[in-house]
Write the structure tokens for this entry.
Amino acid sequence: MIVDMQGVSPTPAGLHHMECDLLAQTNGYAAVWFGRGSTALYYAFEASKRGAGGHSKGEILIPATACSCIANMACLAGMAPRFLDIDPMTGFAALNALQTRHSHQMKAFVYIHLYGGCADLSTFQRYCAAHGMLLIEDAAQAIGAHASDGGPAGRAGDFVLYSFGRSKMFDTGGALLIARAPYLLDALLEAIEARPLPAMHPCRRAELAIGYRDLQRALLAQYHNVGQTDLPATFARLRPQYDSLYLEPFIFSERLPAMWPMLNTYLERRMEKAARYHSILESGPWRIIDTWRESGACWRYSLLLDDGGLSVKMAEALRREGFNASNLFWPLNVLFQPEDACPAAEDFGRRILNLWVDETVDVVHVEACARSLRALALNR
């Protein structure tokens, strides 16, 4: 099924093979296509309320190290985003933090396979089931990844998200939400019927996207340089202006089914580039996050700088030299719920530096970027 401006429609024939592959990998019941991953998450959050007749607002539990659109979608669904701390070695959600933060108000927990790594979610799956929470598995950065036991990303969640938007494993547009059981699909379809997608001109959506990107960068700079101050209140006033940015209809692109058979080839190319970064940057004033070496999928080559005061400066210096680098995965609790203390995520967010391995760069670019970063580290 797809969700477009007309509501729910049959899946285009060109996507049947890809859809069947992912349903088989995840042992899923049904698949629903949306315009972007945030749209899929919004309706998954709405579906998480259906068990209480759609009237219980509740809370969504999210790792503090995550894309802000996840928390935005919780707010849009009328739910409170709450945050748990992470494993400082990987950036993944930590089970003990989930156990500590859990409350009876929580309707769902979002687990993110970060940077291409893939965790075994069996313990999270059991905990969520025992406490009446949906497990929403976000595999947007880990399509094609495998856990240590060989199982694929996406095999544990009640809902499983794959995204193919800008900056994901391959950029074709669209997102797929897999429901693991009939009752979950029913709840999802009820949510879609209750709130159809709003109409928006693509140019307006592009303008909003640029504005939201610039807002995040400005707030990130203030967070790094000044501290928390009144960031939550400022962000709470501005955030609703961008709500409609995230609700997007699915538009079929032939590129998506055309690229799907090439997934393993794209993953191999990413791994080759990550290995080239690793050969140059294996030692230095940083720690490498190398979960990609086990999972077989690398979304970004990621490292944590020893000096957290340098991540922004180094990212900006690399961008000035024409290299792709970012440090935007900073702790969401700072903006949404400062009372949810997440010290490991806050330290992680100050030190993270991500380098590209996608199709926009080649091995020559990767090697030049790595050498430039090493020179910046030596001359800091």
The CA atoms of residues 28 and 180 lie 4 Å apart.
